[in-house]
């Protein structure tokens, strides 16, 4: 069965949580913020725009939306796997409702050893289709 989940934090790459670049300095509070945060990040599922998920070359339309689930449901395989329609390549576009920082991605492959051999990530791509390199 295939499954995908992402963990991370809300906010941009600057570390301030508000999407703005942040300059670290003594007393800025970042050390305390990081000390009290979950080292694995937040489950970003609730921040995914599920209706806008798009998958190029999925065998059955709409399946990409079924394999992206909250971490608590990672072993629930009732909705089936995500498989490509032809060839081996698939492109899944996962839009978020706000700016996030992805810290990890969990991908569970199929029962018979079926799993992607390569996973490529692109951020903030404007034009995405199956030909993306």
From TrEMBL:
Ranges for region Disordered: 11-30
PITH domain sequence ranges: 33-133
Origin superkingdom: Eukaryota
Cross-referenced SUPFAM superfamilies: Galactose-binding domain-like
GO CC, one annotated term: cytoplasm
Family stated for the protein in its record: Belongs to the PITHD1 family.
The protein's name: PITH domain-containing protein
Organism name: Strombidium rassoulzadegani
